[in-house]
Specification:
Elements: E1 3-7, H1 18-27, E2 32-35, H2 44-49, E3 56-67, E4 70-77, H3 84-95, H4 97-110, H5 117-124, H6 131-140, H7 171-180, E5 184-187, H8 203-209, E6 214-218, H9 224-237, E7 240-243, H10 263-272, E8 279-280
Parallel strand pairs: 1-2, 2-3, 5-6, 6-7
Antiparallel strand pairs: 3-4, 3-8, 4-5
Length: about 280
């Protein structure tokens, strides 16, 4: 059983539509895929309508959080998307994305980069605009060779020359909201140091005490030593460990199913959730 619990579509910053994503997941031989767009569930209905037979969809979202000035992401699985408190917080985070992106465009212009808001908006389309869309604009302009090269101190990394902060949820509040909506919470790529600053690993114990269910261990941004260390932390704290691709289509080099989650862990996630349930495909359009 092959299970990938972290993917993105055009509803946020992926390049595949939700329909394309679930079809590619089936072609890649996955049995279960989670759609976890940034701070939105807008892609769920489209993905469910097209879900191929033999593929199960786990609905979710990747919530933008900040702890002591450091950005972190919280994967929320199988929550009730209409639960008012969590819905209001997601909308607050999402609504702040446009002025933030406009601010990054202005900073880039001050640095002599001829990027425009119209260009970034075209790249984002109907998705929740974010740094990857601005990074893609820099690639189009030949400023950097690849999206990943834009996430440096010279450009868009936390604290970088063109970085602009956005509203991000306190992770302890995010845990309260996820649990209140019947969901399961997993700390995404907690040691992805190549992305910039990460929260201290000592904070994982505090998050666990507040209701954290697991940590994402097997991820492209974690080397072998890091994965081993995180497994040790998870074992000590009694946390679930997941693995996933963090697939973004052509915007990143990872492929669907590059890392996967143990079926027993997946089973425990589904047992803990009561806000929503995995949906098996019946052969979508």
């Amino acid at each position: 059983m092959r299970i990938d619990l972290h993917t993105h579509s055009t509803a946020s910053d992926g390049t595949d539509t939700p329909v394309q994503l679930v079809r590619k997941a089936a072609t890649a031989g996955l049995d279960v895929v989670a759609l976890t767009d940034h701070d939105t569930t807008r892609g769920h209905a489209e993905a469910l309508a097209a879900l191929p037979e033999g593929l199960t969809l786990v609905t979710g979202a990747e919530l933008s959080c900040r702890l002591d000035g450091v950005s972190m992401h919280m994967l929320a699985y199988l929550f009730d998307p209409e639960e008012p408190a969590l819905l209001a917080e997601r909308e607050l985070v999402r609504d702040d994305r446009v002025p933030r992106a406009r601010g990054m465009v202005a900073k880039l212009n001050d640095l002599g980069v001829p990027v425009t808001w119209e260009q970034v908006a075209r790249i984002a389309g109907d998705g929740s605009v974010g740094r990857p869309h601005v990074a893609t604009a820099l690639v189009e302009l030949g400023v950097v060779p690849a999206v990943s090269d834009a996430f440096t101190a010279d450009w868009l990394a936390d604290g970088g020359r063109a970085f602009v902060e956005k509203h991000e949820t306190d992770p302890f509040e995010a845990l309260r909201l996820i649990k209140g909506a019947g969901g399961v919470a997993v700390f995404a790529h907690p040691a992805a140091v190549k992305r910039g600053r990460t929260v201290p690993e000592t904070a994982i114990a505090d998050l666990t005490a507040a209701g954290l269910d697991g940590i994402e261990v097997d991820h492209m941004d974690h080397d072998a030593d890091t994965r081993a260390r995180l497994r040790g932390i998870a074992k000590e704290l009694g946390l679930l460990t997941t693995g996933s691709s963090d697939y973004h289509g052509s915007r990143k080099t990872c492929v669907l199913g590059q890392y996967t989650t143990d079926p027993e862990v997946y089973g425990e996630i589904t047992r803990r959730a009561f806000g929503a349930f995995p949906v098996p495909g019946a052969g979508g359009a």
